[in-house]
Amino acid sequence: MIDKPGPISPDEAIKYFNITQRPPRTIDRLKRPELYPNDKRGWKYGDGGWGSQRIPWAEDDMDCDYDAYWADEITGEEIFGYLARSSPVLIRGLLDDWPMVNVSTADQLKKLHGGIQTLLSNIPYADKFGGEGIWTNISAYIDMIREQKVPGGRSPWYMFRGHRVPHESESEDSIVPADVCTTPPKVATAMKMLHYRADEKPGTPLARITDVNLQWSLGIEGSGAPTHFHNVAWYAQLRCFCCRLYCRRVGLMFGAKKWILQPPHNMIMSNQPPLIFYEDAIPKLKERGVRFTTCMQTAGDVVIVPECWGHGVVNVQPSISVAIEEINYIWRVRQNPNIVNRLPMNKRAYLVVHNAEAAEKDSRLN
């Protein structure tokens, strides 16, 4: 048996290499940790006022095709190891004292950010990718969730708000300022090993020298993001992707998400709403040999997805999360800074310059 599972399936490992993969590493997770705030496996913040109703087909689903760890069982260097060998991983316990959780309950979000106008749509960046939606404020959408009056039918609309760093992430109406939406130390260690160095002072804008975009989302059950791909990211269920210039991470604060991933050789870019894709398209694609792997992320979990893996999520409960895109990557060919630096500024808006000082200078000039 090989020591670590890679991006190929167990059947492929036997077929092509005559190697038997070990099964994914598991931990004892609760299906609804928000209902057990006093259990060490639970979520001490409860449901945050968002409720815990699930889509019927996900009622008993806690499967995960990837290794899972408690935060005290894995180091930042070991997290980097998963990225280096292109293997997703789930970690529980990294968000136990995350400041973002306290400002993400339904009441606090309405109080602090209720007036912010945000696109409510069936897919992220609907205006760019051909989706549908309207502009409204966060408070109005919270009321829709509570009253079960979210538009969209089988593809419920949800809120997705990107924050470009630093212009939007540190603005007055940011939902994810640096002193609140901090990076867990072990994740920061892993990200620093992806060719870039970062400032050693957490909770400051300068500590975000490798962050590109912080994507905040809020959605009712059935909503979510279509399958797509880019660089590494971490996802706090409270969200690492390739083939853009960035790396990424995601955490889930409240709710639950069903992850649908494809390894790099099967990655898919789609604008189909995720619930329809999951229920209608996946069975047909499986018949054509496309491989999918899945994982259920619950409140307090961090999911890390390596670069170039296709991924989409279905919110199976009302969910609020933050995904952080990084500049960093492992497998992409580095751009030549001597060439990139000679390009006019308006021609290289988000091209990566491979040193922290030049990246910071770019953020000031653009």
List the helices and strands and how they pair.
Layout: H1 10-17, E1 67-70, H2 76-84, E2 89-92, H3 99-102, H4 106-113, E3 117-121, H5 126-129, E4 133-137, H6 138-146, E5 158-164, H7 185-192, E6 211-219, E7 224-228, E8 233-237, E9 247-254, E10 256-262, H8 274-287, E11 293-298, E12 301-305, E13 310-315, E14 319-326, H9 337-340, H10 356-365
Parallel strand pairs: 1-2, 8-9
Antiparallel strand pairs: 2-12, 3-4, 3-5, 5-6, 6-14, 7-13, 8-12, 8-14, 9-14, 10-11, 10-13
The biggest sheet, with number of strands, parallel, antiparallel or mixed sense and barrel status, is: 10 strands, mixed
If you consult CATH, what is the topology of the largest domain?
Answer: Jelly Rolls
- By CATH, the architecture of the largest domain is named Sandwich
The count of DSSP E runs of length 2 or more, i.e. the number of strands, is 14
Beta-sheet strand percentage?
15-25%
Helix and strand string, N-terminal first?
HEHEHHEHEHEHEEEEEHEEEEHH
Mean pLDDT: 82
What radius of gyration results from the CA coordinates?
A: 20 Å
From the spread of the alpha carbons, the general shape counts as globular
Give the structural class.
alpha+beta
Highest CATH level, the class of the largest domain? Mainly Beta
Number of domains: 2
Number of helices: 10
**First and last CA, distance:** 51 Å
The residue fraction in helices comes out at 10-25%
